C-alpha cells in the first residue's frame, strides 16, 4: 500500500484510519488523523491491538465481530465506543473492508467521531419529548390561528380542557366559540397584533363541548413571519374557577358592607390555608387605608398591630386555633392609614372542616378608641376625687378636730351663759361639718 498513491490518501485523510491484522487484531498501520484524535503516537499504536481502544466490557464482542467479518469478507459499518489515551470515551462510526496488507489478511478501517452528533440528537429527542409533554399533558391549550383567527393547529389538551377533540377545530373560526358579548372585545384586542408581537387578551367566555361557558385567558404571539409556524400562537388557560372565586369574594365583600352599615364594624374573612384576609369597605372607611384593596395577606394585619400588643394577639389567636376553640376575642391597638393607632375590640369565629382542621375565620373589628378615652377621663376624674377626699380627711379634719376640742374645753370652763350658748353652737356646727367630711371621704373612696 505504501508504494501506491492510495497510501497518500490513507495517510492524509482528515478522518482517522488504520489497518489491523484480522488474526492478531494488532495495528499494522495508522494515519496522522488517528494519532491526533486518539493521542497515541504511531509507534505506540503499532504495539497495540484494536482491543486496546475499546472499553473492557466490549472486547469479547469485538473479537466475535472480526471473526464473523473475516468469514464473510463483506464491507462492515456500525457504531462503537472507543477510548482515547486520556481516558475520554467517544462514539465512532466505523466503516471497514477486507484487504491484503504486506501479505497478511487485514481490514482497513475509517473511524468518524460522532459523539457531538449523538449528544445533539439525544438533546433534540429530549427537547421534543418535553415539548410533546408540554403540549399534550400541560395545563394550557396551545393553538395556532391565521390572521382571520381560523384554527390551523390545536393541541391535544383541548379534549381535557374544552371537551372537544383537536381535529374538530381545524378550519373553524375561533370567534364562533366565543360568547357574543365578548366577541367585540376579542376582535379589538386581536388587532393589537398588527402593532406589537404579543397581546394578552382580557378574560373571555368560550363554549365548552358540553355547552357550558368557560372563562379563558389567552396570550397570543404573532409568528406569521416565522416559516416554521406561519400563524398566531395562542396559549390559553381555563380560569373559570378563579373568576368564580373572585365573584364569590366580591359578593361576600358586598354582604360584609351591608352588615357594616348597620354595625359600623370592620368585617373580615380570614383564609387560614392561604393566609389571605378579605375585608369589607371598613378597611378604607374605619381603618383609613384608601388604596390597599379588599384582600391582604395575614402578615399585613400582624405588622399593623402595635408592637407592644403584637406578640400577645398573635399568640392568642394561634392558641385558640390549636385548642379547637371557635370563639376568639382580643383587644389591641392597630395602626390606621392616617398614621394613628386606634384601640380595637376584635372578635372572630373559627370554622373547621370535616377532618377537624381549621380553614377559615370570620370576624369583626370595632373601634373602641372613644370608649377608651372616656374611661381614661373617668379614671383621671376619680383619681382627682380621691386626692380631694384625702385632703378633706387629713388636711381639713385635723384642724377641725382641734377646733372641736377647744370649743368643748372653753364651754366647760366658761362662766358666762351667753358665751356658753355660742360655744355650744360652735361645737354642734363643728360636729356637723366633721360628719359631712366623713361622708365625702366615704363616697369618694
TrEMBL record:
It catalyses: ATP + protein L-histidine = ADP + protein N-phospho-L-histidine. Its EC number is 2.7.13.3. One of its GO terms (molecular function) is phosphorelay sensor kinase activity. Pfam families: PAS_3. Keywords: Kinase, Phosphoprotein, Transferase. Residues 328-380 form the PAC domain. Residues 127-186 form the PAS domain. This is histidine kinase. It comes from Pedobacter africanus.
Amino acid at each position: 500500500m505504501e508504494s501506491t498513491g492510495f497510501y497518500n490518501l490513507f495517510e492524509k485523510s482528515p478522518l482517522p484510519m488504520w489497518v489491523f491484522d484480522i488474526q492478531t487484531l494488532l495495528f499494522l498501520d495508522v494515519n496522522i488523523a488517528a494519532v491526533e484524535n486518539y493521542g497515541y503516537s504511531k509507534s505506540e499504536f503499532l504495539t497495540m491491538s484494536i482491543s486496546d481502544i475499546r472499553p473492557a466490557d466490549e472486547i469479547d464482542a469485538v473479537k466475535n465481530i472480526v471473526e464473523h467479518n473475516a468469514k464473510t469478507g463483506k464491507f462492515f459499518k456500525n457504531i462503537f465506543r472507543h477510548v482515547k489515551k486520556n481516558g475520554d470515551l467517544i462514539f465512532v462510526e466505523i466503516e471497514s473492508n477486507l484487504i491484503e496488507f504486506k501479505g497478511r489478511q487485514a481490514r482497513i478501517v475509517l473511524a468518524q467521531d460522532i459523539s457531538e452528533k449523538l449528544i445533539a440528537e439525544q438533546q433534540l429527542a429530549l427537547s421534543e419529548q418535553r415539548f410533546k409533554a408540554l403540549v399534550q399533558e400541560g395545563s394550557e391549550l396551545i393553538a395556532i390561528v391565521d390572521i382571520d383567527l381560523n384554527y390551523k393547529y390545536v393541541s391535544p389538551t383541548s379534549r381535557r380542557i374544552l371537551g372537544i377533540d383537536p381535529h374538530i377545530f381545524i378550519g373553524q373560526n375561533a370567534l364562533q366559540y366565543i360568547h357574543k358579548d365578548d366577541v367585540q372585545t376579542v376582535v379589538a384586542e386581536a388587532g393589537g397584533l398588527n402593532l406589537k408581537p404579543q397581546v394578552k387578551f382580557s378574560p373571555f367566555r368560550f363554549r365548552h363541548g358540553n355547552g357550558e361557558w368557560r372563562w379563558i385567558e389567552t396570550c397570543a404571539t404573532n409568528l406569521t413571519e416565522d416559516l416554521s409556524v406561519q400563524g398566531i400562537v395562542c396559549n390559553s388557560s381555563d380560569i373559570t374557577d378563579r373568576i368564580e372565586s373572585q365573584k364569590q369574594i366580591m359578593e361576600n365583600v358586598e354582604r360584609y358592607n351591608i352588615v357594616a352599615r348597620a354595625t359600623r364594624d370592620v368585617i373580615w374573612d380570614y383564609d387560614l390555608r392561604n393566609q389571605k384576609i378579605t375585608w369589607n369597605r371598613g378597611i378604607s372607611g374605619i381603618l383609613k387605608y384608601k388604596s390597599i384593596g379588599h384582600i391582604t395577606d395575614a402578615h399585613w394585619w400582624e405588622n399593623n398591630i402595635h408592637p407592644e400588643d403584637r406578640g400577645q394577639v398573635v399568640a392568642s389567636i394561634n392558641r385558640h386555633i390549636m385548642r379547637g376553640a371557635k370563639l376568639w376575642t382580643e383587644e389591641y391597638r392597630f395602626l390606621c392609614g392616617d398614621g394613628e393607632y386606634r384601640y380595637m375590640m376584635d372578635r372572630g369565629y373559627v370554622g373547621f372542616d370535616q377532618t377537624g382542621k381549621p380553614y377559615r375565620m370570620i370576624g369583626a373589628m370595632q373601634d373602641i378608641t372613644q370608649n377608651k378615652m372616656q374611661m381614661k377621663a373617668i379614671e383621671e376624674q376619680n383619681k382627682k376625687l380621691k386626692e380631694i377626699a384625702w385632703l378633706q380627711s387629713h388636711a381639713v379634719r385635723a384642724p377641725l378636730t382641734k377646733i372641736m376640742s377647744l370649743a368643748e374645753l372653753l364651754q366647760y370652763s366658761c362662766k358666762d351663759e351667753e358665751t356658753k350658748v355660742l360655744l355650744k353652737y360652735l361645737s354642734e356646727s363643728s360636729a356637723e361639718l366633721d360628719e359631712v367630711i366623713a361622708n365625702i371621704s366615704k363616697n369618694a373612696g
